[in-house]
Each structure stands twice: as structure tokens, then as C-alpha cells.
Amino acid sequence: MRTDERGLAYGGGWLDRAGRLRSDPGWVVARLTDRESVLLPFWQDRCLVSAERLPVRRSAVDAAGLLAAADEAVFLGLDAGRAVFAVDLSGRAEPEALALAGAAEAVDVRALVGGLGAADAAVQAYAKGLLHWHRGQRYCGACGAATAARDGGHTRSCTGPGCGRLLFPRIEPAVIMLVEAPDEPGRCLLARHRGAPEASWSTLAGFVEIGESLEDAVRRELAEEAGVTVAGMAYQGSQAWPFPAGLMVGFRATATSTEVRVDGEEVVEARWFTRAELRARVADGRPLGRIDSIDHHLLWSWLDRRG
Questions:
Q1: Where are the domains positioned within the chain?
Q2: CB atoms closer than 10 angstroms to residue 204
């Protein structure tokens, strides 16, 4: 049974990204002076929020100072015909950024998930990820010349003579795996990663490397980190994870044996848990994975699968 993507944070955003319209510079500029347009301010990857810890939303026509002070303003999409922009104030000192936005504090988007609807959290994460990419792509990697935003901020182009290289936002895919034992009783493999608290257990995960399929990455990561080989696997779902540019791809896999040999570097301990043991952890108030992460859903779907 695949993970229900509607229950995953940072997906299902409510914006029409308007790919054809955003390629028209005149249209984008006009939206920045449209009284219906909305600005979402950020500072150094953090969302600027009100005293009620809700994301600040400013009207474009009432925030000329905010736009003038911004390092970047990128078009995110249309909300019922209203243009929505993310505005980066990272170049300003934090108190100045808060004052310009009329905000009370700067907060990590992940800390807001419990108080926002899934679609609203998706838009905030999308904005954060896109602004982060812009800050890291100010110069061309081929010739070193400055780059300039295009297409409403969804592309950057090199300004160097004879270059003109186009830069597009990059996604960094990672696999995350719920591994089952091959025999009864039903058990799943959880790991404790270096630096994690002693009682903190999570599913195994890792980035996809060049030249790998997703399935190749599952096999390699499990073998490298836990010494586990798998007999088969099935795709469960994916999750946007723009922190700063991830895409989490979930799998369920079946191990060929219950032997475990951790690498001692990234993973310091790994063990098999029965459903009864996981239910006991929940009863003690210990969460199964991050509440906003796909590993939470992988674990709960396995826990609810049988008995």
C-alpha cells in the first residue's frame, strides 16, 4: 500500500505556477505593482511571521520599501488570479528585515507545520527552497560572471560575454526506506545515527548518486550503512523536502536476512523492532519519525498493516 501523498507535508501547494506567463518579463514586473499581488518575506531561509506565528503576507502596492530592500523577489505562482512572490531580505540585519516586513520574528518553516495547513506549508517551503537556490547561484560556474534572474526567478542566466549559460534550480533526490525482516514475527529495521540522542531511532535514508537509479541507491545505502541486502522493494511515495533542495523518495524493502553490520560512521546502531515494540514507544510518548517527514508515514503505514 502506497503512502497517501495528501498526508505528507510540503506537497499539494495551492499555487498555479503559471509557467507560460512567468516567461514574460513585462507581465512579471506588472504583477509586482498590482494591488492584488501578495509578498511573502523571508530572511536567511527563515519565514517572517506575525506575533501569532503566522506567515506575514504583504500587499505589493503597500510594500515598496520591502521590495526596494530585497535581494531577490521571485514569482511563485497565482492564487485565484493573485500573483504571489517570495521576497528575500537576507542581506539586511535581522531587526531591519523584521521591521521592513512588519514581522515579529524569523522562524524555520519546519517549526510552523503544526500550525499551518498542508498546502500553506508547501508554499512556504517552496519559497524557502527557491530563494536559497538564488543566493547560491549569483555567479556562473563556467566563466565566473554574474548571473541574473529570468522567468520570474525560475531561471538564472550568465551575463558574461560569449557565455549566456542558463542555470535551473537543482533537485537533490534521496531515498528513504522502511526495511522489513524476511521472517516472522514482523519486524522493521531502525537505526540510530551519529549525533542522535540514544533513544532516537529512524528509518535509513541517503542521497542518490550520479549514475544510480532510485533502486540502486536503496541497495547501496542499506549495504553501506547497515550491511543489509534486500530481496525486493516497492515504491511507496515521494515528498518535497526543500531544505534546501531535497526530494524524498520512499520505499518499502524486504531484507534477505536479519544480519546487521553498521558502518560506525553515519549509523552507530541498528536493530529490528516488532510492531508491539513500536506501539509501546508511541504509548510512552515517543514519536515515530519527524511528524512532517515521509518516514513518519512509512512507519505508521507498516505499523497499521497487520495486527
A1: 5-141, 172-303
A2: 25
SS3 track for 214-240: HHHHHHHHHHHHHCCCEEEEEEEEEEE
Q: Quick check: bond before 41 cis, omega within 30?
A: no
What is the assigned CATH class of domain 172-303? Answer: alpha beta
Q: Give the CATH number of domain 5-141; options: 2.30.40, 3.90.79, 1.10.287, 3.40.50.
A: 3.90.79
Higher-confidence residue: 102 or 288? Answer: 102
Q: Which residue has the cell 504571489?
A: 84
Cα 298 from Cα 178, distance rounded (Å): 6
Is residue 70 a contact partner of residue 89, using CB atoms and an 8 Å limit? yes
pTM of the model: 0.90
In contact, 42 and 131? CB cutoff 8 Å = yes
Torsion of CA 56, 93, 86, 290, to 10 degrees: -70
CA dihedral (40, 41, 45, 48) in degrees, to 10, reads -100
Domains 5-141 and 172-303 share a fold: yes
Position 178 pLDDT exceeds 50: yes
Kindly report, residue by residue over 221-257, the tens digit of the pLDDT. 999 999 999 999 999 999 999 999 999 999 999 999 9
Residue 21: C-alpha distances to residues 14, 29, 134, 139, 254 (Å): 17, 11, 20, 26, 46
CA–CA gap between residue 266 and residue 262 (Å, rounded): 9
Instruction: Give CA–CA dist 299/286, Å, rounded.
Output: 13
CA atoms within 13 A on the CB side of 158: 15
Tell me which residue of 77, 62, 82 sits closest to 152, measured CA to CA.
77
Average pLDDT over residues 141-155: 96
Reading the block at residue 268, the C-alpha cell is 552507530
